[in-house]
Structure formats: C-alpha cells, structure tokens
C-alpha cells in the first residue's frame, strides 16, 4: 500500500534459512521437527511427573514445573512458524502476526529470566539456610514468587512490542531472521529509533543482566557454603541439588548474553540466527533431559509413575 511517499507494510517476509539449498532446508526441517517433538514430550513429562508423584512436591519441583510450562510456550511461539518456512516456504507473516509473535517472545523470555533467578534463590535458601527453608519457602511464598516471575513478562512485552509497532514501516519488509525478533524488525523502521534503543538496552539490563547477577550472587554464596561443609557426602548432596539448575542457567544465559550484549557489527546475521537457535530451540529441549538424567529423584519418580501407570506385569 502507498501513502504519500511511504509504502505501508501489511506483512513481513521472514528470510529464515532461505539462503540454504532446498535439500539442506529439508534436513533442517526434520532436525527441528524432532527437537520440537522431544521438547514438547520432555516438558510435558516433567509437568506430569512433578504433579503426580508425592515425593516431588517441594518448592524446587514446583518451580521446575513452571519452567517446563514456560519452555513449552516459548517453543510454540517460535518453532511452528520456523518449520513452515522450511518445508512449505511459508515465509510471510502478517503485521499482527509478527507483533503477536514478538510479544510472546518477550513475555516468555523475560519470565524465564526471572524464574531462573527465583530457582537460584530457592537453592540458596535450601543450602545456606536449611533450618528456615520450610518457613521461607512455604506454599504461599512459592506461589507469589512464581506469579511475580510470570507477571514480569507483561510490562516488558507490552512496552517493547507496542513501541516497535507504533513506528512507521515504509519500504523493505524482509526480516533477516527466522522469527520476529526486535533487532531485525527495528532495522526496517524508517524513523529515529535512538530513544527506543536506549529503552531496549535498559530493559535488557533489567530482565537479562540483573537476574543473571542475582543468580551469580546466589551461587557464590552457595559454593562458599558447600566448601565449608565438613563431610564429602554433604558436599556431594548439596552440589547435586543445584548442578542441574546451574547447567540450565549456563546454557540459557551464555547464548542470550552473546546475542543481545554484543555490538551489531561484531556478529553477522547468520551467526545471530545460530545463537538464537541455541536458546529458542536447543535449550528448551535440553532442560527436561538435564533435569531427568542428572536428578536421581526425578528418575526414581519416573519409575514410580511408570510402574503405577503400566502395572508391574508390564514392566
């Protein structure tokens, strides 16, 4: 549509992986489809097991259940459209569809950052103040912390998305990414975006860097407490309760920080796509695997739930 000297953009085109050959895109489709199915099944399994098994009703597993819900939402926002661009070359996305995808990407991303910080605080209290742990991390407190983590996604998603899509888009509509992330979309704006970029940097610091610093501070205290424990068995048990979370945090934040805290000119669009794949596609798949394989309580609960479901004769 033309309006004055501007072309009003009604839809966007996701460049995705269109530079690759059709054969490579077909292989990527199969790979990402398998990852997508494993992610959904793994996180649903975590939700069912931590809900059904009475031994997994502690705050740590309550927060893990919330993390699995977030990972499922994160995947549903990004992966189905990406699969469509690969297999049927459905690269167009409506203006409203792009805004909706970006909104929920911000929402789930900010909520996950805050929830990971909440989980670190839970481990800090459990290891550094075990006698008061049942009082500090009671059901009401856990529900409030989880609700606060989920709610944190609303302001950043609302402000960022509304602001971006209030700008005029007056020409090119090709988004050089596999989903509607803010940097490639804001690059299509034909107006001064310096004030928005300052706000976006502030939001990134608040919702990515600040939770990361809280996690880092919690683990400094946790490791200090563990090293002061007299018995080797006590150290092993204490570390095993937080090793899975620490690994998940490392995977998520390493790629997120490399994506959003590096200068634009230092990373090519293709490298940014690879980094984005790490925290939008790969990490959600690895989380349930990490918590299942590295956690003896979850493995035991899986056996108990399977035993009750199938019966002893079928095992």
TrEMBL record:
SUPFAM superfamilies: Family A G protein-coupled receptor-like (SSF81321). The keyword Hydrolase does not apply. Residues 42-291 form the G-protein coupled receptors family 1 profile domain. It is a multi-pass membrane protein. Keywords: Cell membrane, G-protein coupled receptor, Membrane, Olfaction, Receptor, Sensory transduction, Transducer, Transmembrane, Transmembrane helix. InterPro entries: GPCR_Rhodpsn, GPCR_Rhodpsn_7TM, Olfact_rcpt. It holds the Pfam family 7tm_4. The chain crosses the membrane at residues 26-50, 62-83, 103-121, 142-165, 201-223, 244-262, 274-293. It is found in: Cell membrane. PANTHER family: OLFACTORY RECEPTOR. Belongs to the G-protein coupled receptor 1 family. Putative odorant or sperm cell receptor. This is Olfactory receptor. It comes from Pipistrellus nathusii (Nathusius' pipistrelle).
